[in-house]
Amino acid sequence: MISKYQLYLIAIVFVMAGCTRTSNNAGSVRKLKSLLDKNEYFKLDAKFKLLTDSIDDDNRLYFKSYLDNAFNRNNECIKDIDSLLKQPALKLPDSVKSALKRLQGDSYFKTYQYAKAAQCDSNILKQYKHALHKDDIDDISNDLLIRNALKNIPAQQTLIKNNTTIPWKKDKIGLIEIPFTAHEQNFDAIFDTRANISSITQTYAKKLGLHILDVSYNEGSGATGLQFKTGMGIADSLYIGDVLVKNVVFQVMPDSILYIAPVKFQLNVIIGFPVIEQLREVHIFSNGKMTIPLTPAESDLHNFALDGLDPVIALKSGNDTLSFHFDSGASSSVLYAAYFEKYKARVIKAGTQKTVGFGGAGGAQKKKVYVLPKFNLTLGSKSVVVDNVSVLTKPITPGEKFYGNIGQDFTNKFSEVIYNFKDMYINGK
To answer: Model pTM?
Structure first.
């Protein structure tokens, strides 16, 4: 699922709409809301810590719910929203209630509580449909199809008994592939942090013996924005090295959807975010080794967040720290229209106009871009230069807020990259 959890907020936060319980918090609320509207989760987190004593309890809980969701504290997010919505004296506009329920549904989904996620969607459409835009209604209705189909499926479970090491390799188009085992058969899968649900072709769904669900819904490609229909199936279990993963949800697609025509290459299995996240911590070494430690390591780096199911990384670029999508399933990075608009003069001066092809699930497109010969980024304490980065001049999807999508041309600059979903950080060495 690509960016299906965009959260639309009203122009004034609910406390500014007649619910004020303190007289001096309006300025602090405006500052926090401005950052939330832009999905600036890292800046919002820092500002929230500074201003938390200057806002009332209701707004503190409101912003905390979004931060808990963004930083993978989903059970806390669920509790935050329950507490907020159960306060009888707090009269919230329906647009705020629907956004909060949608956020809560996202946290239920990310904790594999599919029936409760479906109930959130159903309640939104029954109670708050009048407060929603058509695009929101369409997205929520599509989510409801998925969650209703999964409502009787047990939660995904991942059992890690010891430190695990597996090999990885690059396929024909430069994507990371990892081995896994299902029904005593060995397979390879793309390792893709930005695949919101793991994906598989119909041919391989039969090979893995997936239980096919009676559902069809809309899906889209992050690289191209193309939309297509897909189904869903469940793998009872699979092994990644010694790690056992049970009740794995796959999007089941026609083989043609995962065929990359320009390079005549068939993708078959993609291991996506829900599986990768439950590994808790993954180390990818440039020498073809991947490790999954039994005990994740703590860090204060805190540069990793989630926008719905899309991983987001904060990287320093020049004098700014910018938020990007983070995509291990992309061979190259691309900068979005938001970056072009912010640094337009610099991009036009340094870049070269070209027409570039972008491929992904569902097909390929050509887009006019500026190509920057060098793009500097800093992760942790290490700065690297990425060559020939394309800059889009128009948004891929409406409401686009991040500055780009960071791929393997960035991570290849490191001998080791660490993904940690417990303390939410990415580091490179």
So the answer is: 0.90
